[in-house]
Amino acid sequence: LKGLLPDRKLYAGGISMMAKGDFLNPHLDNSHDHSRELYRILNLLYYCTDDWKLENGGNLEVWPDGVKAAPTVIPSLFNRLVIMTTGSESWHSVSMVRSDSIRRCVSNYYFGSEPLGGEPYTRVTSFRGRPEQPIRDLVLRVDAAGRQLVRKFRPQGVVATKHLYVQPEPASKE
């Protein structure tokens, strides 16, 4: 991968914490950076909760054969770094946290001027239901289609993104 640029504004990165009962359904990340100029290429996930175990839940699930097949589980173990592509088929989710402990993860994206696979595309974050959730899957598919339709008419979205990190100006050397 050439020409990768870090997410200096932490548009979608930062520190996340998940408590008991939290989860993320299978989804594809949105396709671009905050200004819709660069494609998301990589997501780096660094797990930093001491003594986290597979049975605690909160594990990354990747769905290489789509959301109708079984996912591959990647335990969110302490000091583990996962590097994941974020292309048009990078389905992933997080299993439900079953522990009373808080699961912590530091994440950051890398962007590029060309999408993985070479075919240009634009996509909003699109969630799906798990195989055992057919009604939720239908509702989430309709939701994603509606939000995608809005983007055709309002490429910057309905509400301006406010969760950007603005680096302070360096102190003057005078």
Q: How does this model look, in words?
A:
The structure is a single chain. With 174 residues, this protein is of the alpha+beta class. It is built from one helix and ten strands; from the N terminus they run E-E-E-E-E-E-E-E-E-E-H. The protein has one helix spanning 134-153; strands spanning 5-6, 14-18, 24-28, 39-47, 60-62, 72-74, 80-85, 92-94, 103-112, 126-127. The strands form two sheets. Strands 1, 2, 4, 7 and 9 form a five-stranded antiparallel beta sheet that branches. Strands 6-5-8-3-10 form a five-stranded antiparallel beta sheet. The chain is globular and about 55 Å long. The chain starts with a strand and ends in a 21-residue tail after the last helix.
Please describe the structure with a list of short key phrases separated by commas or semicolons.
five-stranded antiparallel sheet, 174 residues, alpha+beta, 11% helix
Q: What is the structure about, briefly put?
A:
The chain is an alpha+beta fold and 174 residues long. It is 11% helix and 28% strand.
Q: What share of the residues does DSSP label as strand, in percent?
A: 25-35%
How many extended strands? 10
Q: On the 0-100 scale, what is the average pLDDT? A: 90
The outline comes out as globular
